[in-house]
Amino acid sequence: MIGYYSTSMHASSADGIRLGGSAYGHSLFSPIRGGKSQFDQVVKLLLNEADSKRGYLPVFEAKELADLDNPDVACLAGLHLLLRDGRLHMVCNMRANDLDCGLLSDVFSFTMIHEYAAIQLGLELGTYTHTIGSAHVNDSDAERVERVLAEADSRSAPPSFPFPEMPRDTDGSTIADVLHHEHVLRTNYRRYTAERIAGLDLDPYWQQAVLLFELYRQIQHDQTTAFDPDVLAALDPGLRWLMERKWPVCAATSGGGSE
């Protein structure tokens, strides 16, 4: 599945098919004992014992060290959920972190999980703390990192867009529904128009994800970046801005740039 979005991930798979340590979603959300995932078990724990210190979601496993040629040792040690004063806090413990691509995707992913957990517990969000044992930038990425830092310090720094809150009625069935549409589009079973996506039984927040899945379907299966202008126009301004930065043709397709 992830190879469709990032072909470089194949290099982290011992057999070219499965991922081990970096498949965080599998570790956190796959059913284990009694058909419940460890995420479900931690939510249940905190519902029954609000001040528990045991709400830890481990990812890194000792068995990953047994094979010295393992190409995919988990960078994430674990996520710690702590309920304090009516708010849910999360502490992330990274074994190591690539500060170029890794940190960006990890913080985004883990804060999404943090927000989802808070909703399941009926709590407000607390703080998110990201700790790293060993941080690094690969030599091959150093030039790009320098450009990013220079841009951030310049007067032409990128605009800031507010990110919407996850709907309070989001639950496991919501995620399953989104993943169903992701599968349909990833396998090119059908294409979605903006009108079709707007008619899905999904909150507009999650419709934005489906819009991105459809645009990526156009890239991968239609082999084009002359995107459907209606799909582009339906994106939130921040997501449209990102699409325009990645594929400049989007600016012309969507009618002249971001809002």
Please provide a written account of the structure:
It is a single chain. The protein has 259 residues and is of the alpha+beta class. It has helices spanning 2-5, 24-29, 38-48, 101-121, 142-153, 172-186, 194-198, 204-220, 229-233, 237-246, 249-253, and strands at 56-58, 76-84, 87-98, 124-136. The relative contact order is 0.07. The mean pLDDT is 91.
Question: Summarize this, please?
Answer:
This protein has 259 residues and is an alpha+beta fold.
Sheet having the most strands: 4 strands, mixed
Terminus-to-terminus distance: 33 Å
Instruction: Report the uncertain regions.
Output: none
Widest sheet: strand ordering: 1-2-3-4
**Helix content, binned percent:** 40-55%
Please tally the β strands and state the result.
4
Strand content is 5-15%
Number of helices: 11
Q: What is the N-to-C succession of helices and strands?
A: HHHEEEHEHHHHHHH
Query: If you average the pLDDT, what whole number results?
Result: 91
Q: What structural category arises from helix and sheet content? A: alpha+beta
Q: In angstroms, what is the radius of gyration? A: 20 Å
Shape designation: globular
